[in-house]
Amino acid sequence: MFGLGSRKVLKYSAIDTSFSIDVEDTVTCFCRKARRKEKDAGTTEDPKLYLEEAALERQLPELDLRMLVDLPPGLDYNEWLASHTLALFDHINLIYGTISEFCTMTGCPDMTGPGLRTYLWFDEKGKKTRVAAPQYIDYVMTFTQRTVSDETIFPTKYANEFPSSFESIVRKILRLLYHVVAHIYHCHFREVALLGLHAHLNCVFAHLTLLNQRFNLIDPKETEILGDLEAALLGDSTSSSAPSSQTLAIQETPTTAT
Ligand SMILES: [Zn+2]
């Protein structure tokens, strides 16, 4: 159907990696406040740095992102899902890679997300096991890498078709990637913001969320934990239609066979 290497990988261009002083101030001040609150309030959930106004930057206006996820006329639905899944995997993997040194077996002994959520890993036999966050995320990335490289599931060669279970496999990948994003927001947003990557993370989250809103791919029980961020970033769809200097490019990149 498609020749090797013909799959388009969506890329965000004009990613600004410059350090934002505002965010640095907010992060520093917020951490001080958070520690004070922690002392006062005891065991309630940590405050959410990612909901602070200075942290809500995003690289692309919502209008562009909505257009990004709309299925273009004549394009195969599975091919479209494959492109977005690959792009989201690449971006989430990259962002996690930048903060992975802070995500350790002792620092993150559980795979947690906001709302006191803890994720358990289901092994091949369907048995639930409690694993540390870096281990869980390693399982997610390994599983995803293996799946997207499997020619029988993500075909790139001529005459190879998508399997009938393709959409359910994509649902599983997106659910697992969502867990990784939830963990980054919950436990590592401070590091992300200090590296100046928060706008990029927000953009990837917005992409994942809009793709999900468009095609209903992730269970709402999974996404409710970041519902407040979703509302803060995408809530008011009427105010974000202003033109932006940021552009979005769809680039041809060879699909690797590794
Ligand atoms: Zn962690």
Structural features, described:
With 258 residues, the protein is mainly alpha-helical. It has one domain (60-250): Butyryl-CoA Dehydrogenase, subunit A, domain 3, CATH 1.20.140. 49% of the residues lie in helices and 8% in strands. The chain is built from 8 helices and 6 strands. The strands form 3 sheets. Strands 1-6 form a two-stranded antiparallel sheet. The radius of gyration is 19 Å and the shape is globular. The two termini are 20 Å apart. The relative contact order is 0.21. The model is unreliable at 1-6, 13-21, 33-42 and 237-258 (pLDDT under 50). Zn(2+) binds at residues 103, 108, 183, 188. InterPro entries: MOB_kinase_act_fam, MOB_kinase_act_sf. Pfam families: Mob1_phocein. Keywords: Metal-binding, Zinc.
Total strand count, please?
6
Q: Superfamily at the CATH H level?
A: MOB kinase activator
Mean pLDDT: 80
Describe the largest sheet: 2 strands, antiparallel
Q: Tell me the number of helical segments per DSSP (H or I, 4 or more residues long).
A: 8
CATH class: Mainly Alpha
Which structural class should the secondary elements be placed in? Answer: mainly alpha
How do the helices and strands follow one another from N- to C-terminus? EHHHEEEEHHHHHE
Query: Could you give the order of strands across the largest sheet?
Result: 1-6
Instruction: Give me the CATH fold name.
Output: Butyryl-CoA Dehydrogenase, subunit A, domain 3
- End-to-end Cα distance, whole Å, is 20 Å
Morphology: globular
Cα radius of gyration in angstroms: 19 Å
Assign a percent range to the helix content.
Answer: 40-55%
Approximate strand percentage = 5-15%
What's the structural domain tally? 1
What low-confidence regions span 5 or more consecutive residues with pLDDT below 50? 1-6, 13-21, 33-42, 237-258
CATH architecture: Up-down Bundle
| Ligand identities | zinc ion
